[in-house]
Amino acid sequence: MTMTENRTNTVIGTRMLRREDPALLTGEGKYTNDLNIPGSLHLAVLRSPYAHAKIISIDTSAAKALPGVIAVYTGAELASEWAGPMPCAWPVTPDMKNPAHYPLAVSKVCYVGDGVVAILATNETASRDALDLVDVQYEPLKAVVDVEEALKDNIVIHDELGTNKSYTWPLLVEETPGCVEEAFKKAKYTVSERYVQQRLLPMAMEPRAVAAVPQPFGGDITLYSSTQVPHILKVMTALTLGIPEHQVRVVAPSVGGGFGSKLNVYAEELLCVALSRKHKLPVRWVEERTENSQATIHGRGQVQYVELAADEQGKLTAVRVRIIGDMGAYLQLVTPGIPILGAFLYAGVYDIPKAYDFICTGVFTTLTPTDAYRGAGRPEATYAIECAMDALAREMKIDPFELRKRNFIQKEQFPYTAFSGLTYDSGDHLLAADKAAGIADYAGIRAKQAKQNVPGATKLLGIGMSSYFEMCGLAPSRVLASLNYGAGGWEAATVRVLPTAKVQVVTGTSPHGQGHETSWAMIASEKLGIPPEDIDVLHSDTAIAPLGLDTYGSRSLPVGGVAVAGACDKVIDKAKLIAAHQLECSADDLEFAGGIFSVKGSPDRAVPIAALAFAAFTAHNLPDGLEPNLEAQYTYDPPNFSWPFGTHMAIVEIDVETGKIEVLKYVAVDDCGVQINPLIVEGQVHGGVIQGLAQALFEEAVYDEDGNLKTTTLAEYLVPAACDVPPVTTAHTVTPSPTNQLGVKGIGEAGTIGAAPTIINAIIDALSSLGVKHMPMPASPQTVWRAIQSAKK
Amino acid sequence: MKVSITVNGTATESDVEPRTLLVHYLREHLDLTGTNVGCDTSSCGACTVHLNGEAVKSCTILAVQADGTSVKTIEGMSTNGEMHPMQQAFMENHGLQCGYCTPGMVMAAVGLLNENPNPTEDEVRFGLEGNLCRCTGYHNIVKSVLAAAKK
Questions:
Q1: Burial of residue A17, with CB atoms counted within 10 A of its CB: 0-12 exposed, 13-18 middle, 19 or more buried
Q2: Which is nearest to A43 in space by CA: A115, A138, A137?
Q3: Contact A25 B102 (CB under 8 A)
Q4: Which end of chain B is more exposed for a tag (fewer CB within 10 A), N or C?
């Protein structure tokens, strides 16, 4: 039974203002680099200026002589500090090739930004000044920049592997052997498309920062880091450095955005810990933005070949996909798994037979490693299917919305077992799409377009759409096992009612802008009948919240939030035993509402949970055998992913003479099931949409042929400003998830997933009368102008 | 070099290296860490403060250039524990998520309203051109500033 069916919510569903805000708004919030840690040494990392080179020699003498410099280390000098290489937790296939990767390169550098020398100084300025005094002699090798070129193995990056191919991961689902090929032969319509997911820089506004602080006696260490994953970081730090896990405590203070880029275990975190142990002093490091561009993971980076087969009605009969994923120079924490997260979504929201043929090849290049970036594999997949659907509609000369309607999984089919064997929990695609079409005035825009887009028109109108499913709420542990992921997908929560009826909710999620403190307090308040202001939410410190699997993959609410609700249930169950004891009745005779236990039919025989908390604390009169205190821990392993869905639409106008694109309206209709706090849901959608729109229109990590990143600063890499983007019209449908007691689904990545194909489809739609069929991302005015010119030829 | 700067109404004085940026003076010499650093090219605006009443990026100014001036940072925006109307508007309109760009965004927005007390939505969007946010998509930031203008 879901909570919504059970009773009317009074806290859940309200637009409660965020309790996180006052500290952040007044400057009192502390990010890692704001922490005042007396006596700290400052780390600076000298990075490779070459994409691919042998290290011939390193002379650190001049750097060591600089006043303030305490020590300078090369990779070779620190080799004995590591118990093992840096972790990759997702070996997607048994034979996946994974080159050993250490915090500092030893004999060879494999991307611009690869760490070469660590400098410790008494102040940050000296540590950075010393960078210029280190003399490294390199023997440059040829860079490998293009993934398809890399596959040819003309230049092998990691000699010991003998190839640039890391892995091949297939997913072939056929009703009968050969049915995919058969479907393509029989198809009335086919499309065959090639798309490039350009590399993106995540660009969280807070650059990464780390401080490792040795504790008095015994070798314990506290690692402060601007991370999304303190729990994962704790285990991996212990393993990589050979420190007993219980001696490592990780704290993520306020974290200034992550978007996947802080879902990792980075060289600088390990260097700070190793060097703070070596020098028995705190060691801290903060990233400069130009460093961030090169030394923090990149997102996307895929070449996609997608083929659709359809019958005369346009009903999909088979999907064939080949993708080449750019791993970059090394495998970071979950690098190889990112394209695989999209593997199940290349049929989108459509009802297809068991005729699906997917192969992903992971390839090394001499570029910064890629890894999770908002959506991680799923925006790429959604982009491919949604742009291919538009291509199919053009091929068939029918409206792309009509084509989607013919293929949508229907409301009655849920829960829907997909070709892949995965079960989509709930959905109503037509409802969401119709709602979006209503708000965008789809029919009206089509009519206007017919009038406006006539030969000779200088401004062309276009409308684009994309319908998506987001496979999120990572994840059922058994499913992760089948994907070779190196951890489970559960989440833990503790709910502790203190003697004075104030509550501590301890969560294993690690927010960095998502407002968990507010939302988790709302969930606990709803469950316990205790006002939200009496509930504190503790997180992001492995000493306070020892169990957790952190925040990524839109998992926090559908896994961590549900865990909070489950822990509340256990607290209520225990309190009920005390209430029954006090009221001298059977626990079965009690009902609980609004924080009060009462005997069914005799509402005057009642006791509030507040009184029970005190009774549990004094333990003067508890039922025999009941442990004192009112506290429970609950670990929730979700039975399924959560499957939020929706339809986005964009209306654009393009100046044919300049290629300038104006987004006139952007409509996002998202369904994330029951909303705990609609204010926060909308905020997540706004931000996600603009990040997806930015991939479509503005952003690209541009490399030259020598592997130099040309967009290292925010002056060159176009993170949009307020004036570059439109407002976002949000609306929702509410289809509760049947798999968890709150009926919730994740919403963190949905906007990013929906936006890029929506914008690109709108642009192609506007230009289709000129014969434009493809639009690479980012669709800058220049790119659009060129597409128009080449279509004219 | 010695600099004297009035910060949030309090006279401060310190010996700084000539190359010290105002933002580092605020953060490291005065421990006013509310002013954030988000880039190294004066692109992001996270370090925006008011210098003699005008919004400036404190990473573009040397501490020595600010000698003798009056600087206001995010820490100086509240009065008797009451947040500034702009801060309140950001809270009421969910104009922040991770909060890292927020101090700079609030300072820039206050500066914007000082110059243009009744801006249109477009004027707000262009007025905040120098401040980047990665979380909100600006939708609720714009809404916050428009709401503050009405206060």
A1: middle
A2: A115
A3: yes
A4: C
The candidate with the shortest Cα–Cα distance to A254, out of A18, A512, A23, is A512
Tell me the three state secondary structure of residue A173: strand
A748 touches chain B (CB under 8 A): no
Q: Dihedrals φ, ψ of A753, to 5°? A: -70, -40
Would you say the C-alpha torsion A16, A17, A23, A24 has a positive or negative sign?
A: positive
ipTM, two decimals: 0.98
Beta carbons within 8 Å of A209's beta carbon, 6+ residues apart: A31, A32, A33, A225, A226, A284, A285, A286, A287
What Å distances lie between residue A87 and A100, A267, A549, A656, A707, CA to CA?
9, 10, 16, 50, 25
Sequence-distant (6+) residues with CB within 8 A of A663 are A650, A651, A652, A693, A725, A726, A759, A762
Which chain B residue lies closest to A678 (C-alpha atoms)? B94
Q: How far apart are CA A677 and CA A744, in angstroms?
A: 11
Helix (H) or strand (E) holding A86: none
CATH of domain B2-76: 3.10.20.30
How is the beta sheet containing A53-59 ordered, strand by strand?
A: A108-109, A53-59, A135-140
| Domains along chain A with CATH numbers | 3-28+490-636 (3.30.365.10)
The Cα A391–Cα A88 span in angstroms is: 37
Task: Report chain A residues whose CB lies below 8 A from the CB of B36.
Answer: 31, 205-206, 256
CA-wise closest residue to A559 among A494, A644, A491, A509: A491
User: In A347-428, which ranges are continuous DSSP H helix?
Assistant: 378-396, 400-407
Inter-chain touch B40–A512, beta carbons under 8 Å: no
**Contacts with A23 from chain B: Cβ below 8 Å:** 99
Beta bridge partners of A663: A652
**For the segment A267-294, what is each residue's pLDDT rounded down to a tens digit?**
999 999 999 999 999 999 999 999 999 9
What lies within 8 Å, CB to CB, of A152 at 6+ separation is none
Residue located via tokens 């009335």: A188
Dihedral of CA A42/A538/A374/B134: which sign?
Answer: negative
| Inter-chain touch A27–B46, beta carbons under 8 Å | no
Write down the CATH number for the domain with range B85-150: 1.10.150.120
In chain B, what are the domain boundaries?
Answer: 2-76, 85-150
Question: A677-728: per-residue pLDDT in tens?
Answer: 999 999 999 999 999 999 999 999 999 999 999 999 999 999 999 999 999 9
HEC sequence for A606-673: EEEHHHHHHHHHHCCCCCCCCCCCEEEEEEECCCCCECCEEEEEEEEEEECCCCCEEEEEEEEEEECE
Angstrom distance (rounded) from CA A748 to CA A192: 31
C-beta neighbour count of B48 within 10 angstroms: 30
The 10 Å CB-count burial string (b at 16+, else e) for A610-627 is bbbbebbbeeeebeeeee
Q: How far apart are CA A358 and CA A150, in angstroms?
A: 21
Q: Which residue of A has its CA nearest to B105?
A: A25
Residues of chain B contacting A27 with CB distance shorter than 8 Å? 32-35, 73-75, 103
Give the global pTM.
0.97
Quickly state the pLDDT bin for A792 (edges 50, 70, 90).
confident
Amino acid letter, residue A143: A
Residue A7 confidence (pLDDT): 53
Cβ partners under 8 Å of residue A117, min gap 6: A45, A46, A58, A60, A63, A72, A73, A74, A75, A104, A134, A136
Q: What 3-state class would DSSP assign to A542? A: coil
Q: How far apart are CA A379 and CA A758, in angstroms?
A: 11
- Name residue A160's amino acid: E
Closest to A256 (Cβ–Cβ): which among B92, B98, B131?
A: B98
Q: Which of A647, A82, A652 is nearest to A382 (CA)?
A: A647
Contact, B96 vs A169, CB < 8 A? no
